[in-house]
What does this fold into?
Amino acid sequence: MSIGLGVFLMALGLILALGVRDRLSDFDLSMIGWVLTGVGALAIVVSVMVTSMRTRGRTRSTEYVERPPTTEYVERRERRNDIDPL
It folds into this structure.
């Protein structure tokens, strides 16, 4: 389950619970809406818990090694032939 599924179920549930006033002969759409809202909220809570448990074990560490400066002299010469003289 993901957070998107939970939000979708909550939205659908609230539409059925608060927006629809029609009753069918066998079941009440308002009650189904409240059940879907609860299931959506539970899905969001479970997905947040699972995500936090997944990322808890992962840590990122960066190690910097400081090297002493060298005393070597490096000379670099570059010649380009693609420059047009004016």
Residues 65 and 71 are 18 Å apart (CA to CA). The mean pLDDT is 80. The longest helix spans residues 29-56.
